[in-house]
Design goal:
Number of helices: 18
Largest sheet: 3 strands, antiparallel
Number of strands: 3
Strand content: under 5%
Order of helices and strands: HHHHHHHHHHHEEEHHHHHHH
Radius of gyration: 25 Å
Oligomer: single chain
Length: 383
């Protein structure tokens, strides 16, 4: 990408009419960030508003890439930035298409900006549109969970625009709650007998068997598995077990036990993929699970692949579900099975890397309910 300036983004949105993939990739480039910071510093030295001459495109870019931690490894990851950009650019595109209407609808229209011309009713109209438009999977409206995620990002951005005085109206206050009811929270529970069926189905397929076992027996996120290196595997002299170390979401380190059966399936995967080495080598920065070409998986490609191989089994429990079983479901399985084996909630929280205990408890909601079931206190012989 050469000679790229953020001022081109508005034109890109107008010309591409809904295809935001290239625009997102352009906006992910961080090289422009330092230039924006220099402008901010110049404004501060002159006692001017920090974002006084920023464009809408630059505000989106700065918001997504803004640095909040001294360590770069604690900043937003690329997949998080991608999600933010897609949500903000989707809103921006909607607003751009409404520009001619805005000119008639707003007194004292400000040229060369969209965001500064927005009013509370525009935000309400957009939320109504997003909740009913056929933009979700299968040409259906967004699921409640997807809608909630998008509006949470947009609300945070609008609040930031107001706090930085880029916009005058507190538009974030106009966004209605999209919090999920108990019935709307997706059921991502996965149980041992279901995981065992999947593993048995692919027991003669080293690639699928290895990947599914890795998800089930470690509770790692698919992103963490996709970027893991063979050199991250080591033999622990204290316990005699093989382990995998790495850095996960939010810069949190993990050190996962690799059970012997899992380690054997990792080796089988690597042998099938003709990996250069199956002997431990801490200097080997190649992928733990290499692709056919020997490279690292893109985590979304790996996630989609796992969804497909699960659907392909057509096992009864798969066909009975209303949703697709994704790699994330195996984190729920890890929590549920660990609890059933007697693990404390704190230990499960630590293993899954949850910052909030409530997240772990949500994974275990049904299990905890069964443990506290009043009926178990009854004496059956009394009846």
């Amino acid at each position: 990408m050469q000679d790229f300036s953020l001022v081109h983004i508005g034109a890109e949105v107008r010309e591409r009419k809904g295809d935001l993939n290239k625009i997102v990739s352009l906006m992910l480039d961080t090289t422009y960030y330092d230039a924006l910071e220099e402008r901010n510093e110049h404004h501060q030295r002159k006692n001017n508003d920090m974002f006084g001459d920023f464009t809408d495109e630059e505000m989106m870019y700065y918001y997504v890439h803004q640095r909040k931690h001294i360590r770069k490894d604690r900043e937003r990851k690329e997949n998080t930035k991608t999600e933010y950009l897609r949500t903000l650019l989707q809103f921006y595109q909607y607003a751009v298409k409404s520009e001619s209407f805005l000119r008639q609808d707003v007194d004292y229209y400000i040229e060369e900006t969209i965001f500064k011309n927005l009013r509370p009713w525009h935000i309400r109209n957009y939320q109504d549109y997003l909740s009913t438009a056929l933009l979700g999977k299968g040409g259906k409206p967004y699921s409640p969970a997807t809608l909630d995620a998008k509006m949470t990002i947009l609300k945070s951005f609008m609040k930031w625009l107001h706090e930085t005085k880029y916009i005058l109206h507190p538009l974030h206050k106009e966004i209605l709650s999209t919090s999920l009811s108990e019935q709307e929270i997706p059921n991502r529970d996965l149980y041992y007998h279901e995981v065992k069926q999947l593993l048995d189905y692919y027991k003669d397929h080293p690639i699928n068997h290895g990947l599914l076992t890795m998800l089930a027996m470690t509770g790692l996120r698919v992103q963490e598995i996709a970027k893991a290196s063979w050199g991250d595997v080591y033999l622990d002299s204290l316990s005699g077990h093989y382990r995998l170390r790495g850095v996960g979401k939010g810069g949190k380190t993990f050190d996962k036990l690799l059970h012997p059966s899992l380690y054997e399936r990792i080796l089988a995967f690597r042998e099938r993929r003709h990996a250069t080495s199956t002997a431990l080598n801490s200097s080997d920065k190649g992928p733990l699970f290499p692709t056919k070409d020997g490279g690292f998986y893109q985590y979304k490609n790996l996630s989609n692949y796992i969804v497909r191989i699960i659907e392909r089994t057509e096992l009864p429990f798969i066909k009975e579900r209303n949703d697709r079983v994704t790699p994330h479901y195996f984190r729920h399985f890890y929590a549920i099975y660990s609890r059933q084996q007697g693990a404390d909630i704190f230990l499960i929280q630590k293993e899954l890397g949850h910052s909030d205990r409530k997240t772990t408890e949500r994974y275990l909601e049904k299990v905890l309910q069964r443990e506290q079931e009043i009926g178990l206190m009854w004496k059956e012989q009394d009846f």
